[in-house]
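Predict the structure of DUF305 domain-containing protein.
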Amino acid sequence: MNNNQNSKILYGIGGLILGILLVSLFVPMTRYGGMMSWGGNQDSYPRSADTSSLDQHFIEQMIPHHEGAIAMANLALQRAKRPEIKTLAGSILAAQAEEIQDMNSWYQNWFGNNVPQVSLGMMGGGMMSQSGMHMGGQEDIAGLENAIDFDKAFIEEMIPHHQLAIMMANMLKAGTSRPEMLQLAKNIISSQAKEIQQMQAWYVQWYK
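Done. Here is the predicted structure for DUF305 domain-containing protein.
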């Protein structure tokens, strides 16, 4: 089996696990009127004042998720051999740091307090840790620090990390009633989809 086939299998398995993980992240917040009314269909989330809880939960999940990406990107600036990876890392740092700043500000304005501190890899009340997918947590950082081929390991870590962010953003896009959150969701989907496409192209070019 060649590297191209291996990469396709890797992405396929990663996507399946991400889908299961995402349900575990968001199902606890889908109780509406005492019933589970959102079964995973993006268009079925009830648009009402109650979607404020969606915004709150999304921010609480996405900030530590972004922090994981930033930690990996900082490591890439130190360890990456290819200038393309370093440039990508710089873009991730700039974009996601700005989004974190926006989300922190919105959270304070809308919900009256600071975003709860969540350790990397413990998003969803520990669900990510229980699922075995830390997605930018301490185990992932340690793996990157010790990777023999850092650039390859970085791509293999960052693609599923971005995929999860896009899936979360699609759910936010379908359910939020706040224009700020809708625009954030669109930005995450657009920018990270492009980065995934670029990383996949590099992976095929460099490791096929």
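The first helix runs from residue 3 to 26.
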